[in-house]
Amino acid sequence: MEDRNITLKTKPGAPLHVSIAHHQPQDERQLSDTLVVFLNGLVLPRAGWFETVEHLSKLRSDSNQPTPALLCYDRYGQGKSDSDPFDIQDSPYGHDARAAIADLHQLLIQVSQDELHRQVEDLRIILVCNSIGCPLARLYAAEHPGRVGAYLFLDSMMANTDFVSVFPDPAEPDFDESQLAEGVTAEGLRHARDKFREFFHPTVPNSERLDRRNLRELLPHASEPALPNAPGGDPPLLTVVGHDWDEFADQCEKGPLAVPKAIINTYMNPAWGTYNEGLTRLVQVTSDVKIAKGCGHFIQKDDPAFVAGKIDGILNELRNRGQ
Q: What keyword terms does UniProt attach to this protein (predicted)?
């Protein structure tokens, strides 16, 4: 991939750092109108996708199939990109999800024209997303219907929760510790609520200064609004992937959260599984949630070959559909 800085015309003086791989054709016509865009979570920047891109390029080359243009980028305040010039400097909160998708669209306009020599309206976009990148993809598609042909959601952030209320509150008057599952204690629940409040509550600022406080209002439901049709009016493809419950619980227990596996498996994993099932209903033709075996939340980090295989499958499905 080629690295470069791109300054958005809407935000002069503050470049975004991007990595671009151009279309690699076996046939000039195949996938020449397709752009795969990788949307980061809050923690892993654009470089977190590079191993996936390498695996994908090899997969496509080995099967004598074309690879479409690929775009990874650091959002404002992330990785090697500048801070958002419109953020208020003396506030811990900056731009919100709506600003992030406006920046994405302007980036796509400029990349389409300057790098791919097309108009963005003539492109079919595939969004490959992790964590908060998945809600951003949903908001982008709603704002720009008819642009996105396929989605790969990798352990989407639960956009409609504060994360803390997933766990019972021992301070509630009707709390009964004797009814808790094996391995779950009131002390453990208080610890879990404190840690998830400290790290994940929507009011917690982040280094990117992406304000998450209104995300529950923007996307209150996992299963709606439905994703709009793809270019040409066809239904979009959607693949929803969830983390491996046991691996995620293990990482939560051994990592800085230090939340016991029993608590994660009793409350957080089932809630996340239900949310992922809701996401599958964003399209008319639903499919089961795919589980990334051995992967925690950052699936592209834990198994980039798995992610590449899913993208390869999407590209092949689009070809089989004649799209």
A: Hydrolase
Q: Give the amino acid at 305.
A: A
* Nearest in space to 137 (alpha carbons), one of 241, 206, 38, 275: 38
Q: What is the DSSP letter of 47?
A: G
Dist. CA 18–CA 16, nearest whole Å: 6
Task: Give per-residue burial for 80-115: e unless 16+ CB within 10 Å, then b.
Answer: bbbbbeebeeeeeebbbbebbbbbbbbbbbbbbeeb
Going from N- to C-terminal start, the domains of the chain cover 2-320
Q: What is the pLDDT of residues 270-285, one digit of tens each?
A: 999 999 999 999 999 8
Which uninterrupted H or E stretch holds 279? helix 269-280
Question: Residues 90, 259: contact at Cβ < 8 Å?
Answer: no
The domain 2-320 belongs to what CATH superfamily?
Alpha/Beta hydrolase fold, catalytic domain (3.40.50.1820)
Predicted TM-score of the model (pTM):
0.96
Structure tokens at 18: 């991007």
pLDDT digits (tens, 9 = 90+) for 176-221: 999 999 999 999 999 999 999 999 999 999 999 999 999 999 999 9
Number of Cβ within 10 Å of residue 187's Cβ equals 10
